[in-house]
Amino acid sequence: MEAVQELIHKDMTLGEIVSKYPQVVPVITEYGLHCVGCHVSYWETVEQGCKGHGMDDETIQNLLKDINRVANEKQSAKEDGAVIHITDFAAEKIKEVLTKQNKEDHFLRLEIISGGCSGKSYSFMLDNVQKPNDTVVEKNDIKVVVDPATLEQIKGSTIDYLDTLQGAGFKIDNPNATKSCGCGSSFR
To answer: How far apart are CA 60 and CA 67, in angstroms?
Structure first.
């Protein structure tokens, strides 16, 4: 197993971490630091925030290990050369949805459709019919399928799953989007 690079350390501010690695927010909140979005915590270091919430050194080290694992996963996904990247957490959630709906023989189809305040939005659906020109991306025994028109607009994107106090769902980090709306549900 490859060593996890320490992208995040105890002396980094929470604001810097959230800005560079927003995908780690759910992990931070699971550890009890629910203030990652408040103005007070923005300038606190990880260590200061954790100590302020009564965490011991071992818990802080475990938090750092977990958030570095998530940050590294996204970093390596960007470097793997795949047309679309799927995080382990997103793959796990896709598998969970398929199992819950008794559709283990299906896959997640991702399409870009017209709509939303910025002009386009993502559509996710469970499907079991693959078309001849579809591109299939596999991760941990699940498949995400996209048509050629969608692929052209999302090439290099990362599919992740976020579970925060504000809501939960799949999130697309699309380097080709030039603008997105305030709520993040549509893009241009």
So the answer is: 11
